[in-house]
Amino acid sequence: MNQENNSRREFLISGLLAAGVVAGCTPNKNTFEAAAGEDVVASGKKVKLLSVDGEIIEVDEAFLKPVPHMPPVSNTEARIGIPGKKFVMVIDLSRCKNLKKCQSACNHAHELNPGQNWIKVDPMQAGEYTAPYWEPTTCMHCDEPPCVKVCPVDATFKRQDGIVLIDSDRCIGCRFCMAACPYSTRVFNWDQPMLPAAVASQPYSAETSIPQKKGTVGKCDFCADMTREGMLPHCVSACPNGVFAFGDMNEDTVTNGAETFRFSELIRDKAGYRLMEDLGTKPSVYYLPPVNRNFPFQSGLENDKTQNS
Amino acid sequence: MENVIIKDKPIKDTLPKDINSAAGDKIINDLLPQKFGKAGKIWVGILVAICLVGMFAYYRQLRYGLVVTNMRDYVSWGIYISNFVFFVAISLVGSLITAIFRLLGVKWGAPLTRIAEMIAVAGIIFASLIIIVDMGSPERFYYLFLYGRIQSPIIWDVIVITTYFFISVLLLYYPLLPDIKILLHHKERSSQKLNKFYSFIGSFWKGSHKQNLLSNKAINVLCITIIPVAFTIHTVTSWLFATTYRPGWDSTNFGAYFIAGAFLVGAGAVVVAMYVFRKAYHLEKYITDSHFDKMGKIVVLLSLVYLYFNVNEFLTPFFKMKESERGYLNDMFTGSFAPVFWFAILTGMILPIIILLFKKGRRPLPMFIVGVMVVVGAWFKRYLIVTPTLLHPFLPMHDVPEAYRHYFPSWEEWAITMGSLAGTLLVITILARIFPIIPIQETLNEHHETAE
C-alpha cells in the first residue's frame, strides 16, 4: 500500500518539476526516498518547487537528484507498454478558451510540420439554440480502436497500458486507419517532413513518434515517452487553464499539474462523458461538460481567426 | 523441334473433320489474330503515350510523395481508390459471362467468353497496380505478406484478389489451348517470336480425348469456384468502406449494391468491346445483331437491379435525414456533387433502361453508346462512393489548412488514373492481338454440329 502511494506521489510531483529532476519530497520534511540511506549534506541553497497541493515549497538543492536519461526503449518494449498502467485523460470543456497552447506545445515536441495538428480545438455547437463551446480533441486511445482493427500490417497497435501508437517503420501508408477513425484524429505525411538533420537521422521511436516519415500516418501518442518517465504529456503541462488532466485509471488519479483529482469522483461529480459513445469505440479520453465556464465562448474566437487564416 | 511433335499424327485425328473444308478454313481465317492496321497502330500509340504520361506522373509521386495529389487528411482516399473499385467491378464480368453462362448452359454467350475474360484479367491487373499507386510507402508492399493481419479487410482483399487473378488467368488460358494448336498449325500467320511463345504456352496440347476431358473438367471446376470468389472480391472491396463508421459508408446494403453495380459495368464493357472488335476485325458473322440484342436484355436487367440497390441505398437515409448524414446527402442530391450524382444515375442506369427497352435500342450502334454510358456513369459513381463521405466527417473540419476542406484531383492523379485506364485497354488490345478474340475451336465445333 505504502509502495503504491509512493509511486503515485512520484508520478504526480514529477509532472510539476522541470525535466531532469525527480523528487519524492513531502512538504516540511527534508527526507527523500530517492536519497534515503545516502549521506546528503544540505548545501544551504534552496530551490522553489510547487507541491501537489499547489503550494510553493522550498527544498535544499542537495536533496534533488538528477534523473538518469533513460535509453530509448526497443520497438518490442514500445509495443508492450508500461505494465500495470491504464492511462486516461480528462478534458474539462468549461476551462477551454481556445488558447491552443496545447497544440503548439504538441507540435513543437513532436516536430510536426505546419498544417499537421495532432491536437485540434474545434468550435462545437450541437443545435441551433445550444451553447457553443471549444472542444480540444486528441487521439482518443480507444479500448476498441477501429484504426487498429483495420490496419493490415500491425503498424498501429494497442498497448496494455491503453495507449495506441504507430510504428512508422511498419506503416505502408494505405490510410485505412484514417478512414476508419471516426474522430478524424490521424494525419498523414503527404510530403517529406521538414526536420532538422539531427532529428531526421534518428531511428524512429514509436513512443516519441519521432521522426515522422514521408508516406506514413501520424497521430497523438499520449506522449508515451513522457509517461514512461513519469511525466505529464506536453499538452497537459502547456495548458495554462488546466483543461487537460492526465493520469492512471488503475490508481484512479488524474492531474493537470496544479490540481489532482480522483478520476472516478471527477467523472461522477461533473458528469463526465466520452465522445460518440454510441459507436462503441470506448475512448480513454473523457470530457467534462462546458458548464460554469471560466471564459465566454467568444473569448476564443480571436485566436481562432489568427490560427486558421 | 516442337514443330515436328505438333505436326505429328494427332492433329488430323482430333480436329473436327471439316477443318480442311472451305467453311472451316474460312472460320479459321476470319478468327485468327490479325496484325495491327493503321488505325490499330495509332490506337496503340495513343494508349502507350497516355501510359507514359501516367508513368511520369507516378515518378513524380514517388519522388515527392503523395503531396503531388490533392488528397489531404480529410479526403485521404481519392480517385485512386474509386478507380480501384471501378477496376475490381469491371473484372467481375469474367465470372458472369464465362462462368454463369456456362453453368446455366447459355450457348449463345460462347463467342463473348474470351472478350469477357480478357477484360477481367486486364481489370484485375490494374486493380492491384492502382492500389499500390495509392500507398504512401509502396516500397513496403511486401509487408502485406510478411506482417499481414487477417482481421484487416485489406488482407481479405489481398487474398481474394490474388485468388481471382489466378482463376481468371486460368479461365482465359485453358479454353485457349485448342486455339493455340490451330495457331501453331498456321505458323505463317504469326511472327517467329509469337510462334515461339505459342509453342511455349501450348505445345503440349495434342487435343486428345483425355486432354479434352481433363480440360473440360478443369474449366468446370474453375467456373464453379470463380463465382464465390468473384462475389467475395467485390463484397470485400465494399467492406473497405462498410466496415467504417462514416455516413454514406456505414451501410449493410453495400456488398450487394457493389456486386450489382459491378455486373452492370462489366456487361457494359463487354458490349463496348464487342462492338469495337466486331467493327475492327469484321466479325459481323460471329458477333451478330442477335448477340447485341441478348446482351441488351441482360444490361436492362442489370441496370434495373442496380437501380433498385441505389434506391435502397439513398432513399432510406434520405427519408430519415439523420443529422450525421444530412450534410453528405444534401451534397449529393442538391449540393456540389449533385451534377455528378444525377449524371451517374441518369447515364449509368435510367437512360440505358429506357433505351434498351426498345428493340431498336438493342441494335449494335445504340448498344455501343449505351455501353459507353454505362461504363462512364459507373466510373463517376465510384468517385461518388469515395469522396463525398470523406468530406463529411463526424467532427468539424477545423484547425487544418483551407485546402484540406475540398478535393479535386491534381493533374498527377488524373494522369495516373488515365494511364491505368489506358493500360487496361492496352492489355486488352495486346491480348486480342496475340489470341483469337472469338474461340476458334468452339466455333468450329458448333459449325460442325449445326452442319450435321
From TrEMBL, chain A:
It comes from the Bacteria. GO terms for molecular function: 4 iron, 4 sulfur cluster binding; metal ion binding. PROSITE patterns: 4FE4S_FER_1, 4FE4S_FER_2, TAT. The keyword Cytoplasm does not apply. SUPFAM superfamilies: 4Fe-4S ferredoxins. InterPro entries: 4Fe4S_Fe-S-bd, 4Fe4S_Fe_S_CS, ET_IronSulfur_Cluster-Binding, TAT_signal. Keywords: 4Fe-4S, Iron, Iron-sulfur, Metal-binding. Residues 130-161, 162-191 form the 4Fe-4S ferredoxin-type domain. CDD domains: PsrB. This is Molybdopterin-containing oxidoreductase family iron-sulfur binding subunit. It comes from Mucilaginibacter frigoritolerans.
Automatic annotation (TrEMBL), chain B:
The keyword Transmembrane applies. This is Molybdopterin-containing oxidoreductase family membrane subunit. It comes from the Bacteria. It is found in: Cell membrane. PANTHER family: POLYSULPHIDE REDUCTASE NRFD, PTHR43044. Its main location: membrane. The chain crosses the membrane at residues 42-59, 79-103, 115-133, 153-177, 218-242, 254-277, 298-319, 339-358, 365-385, 414-435. InterPro entries: NrfD-like. It is a multi-pass membrane protein. It holds the Pfam family NrfD. Belongs to the NrfD family. The keyword Ribonucleoprotein does not apply. One of its GO terms (cellular component) is plasma membrane. Keywords: Cell membrane, Membrane, Transmembrane, Transmembrane helix.
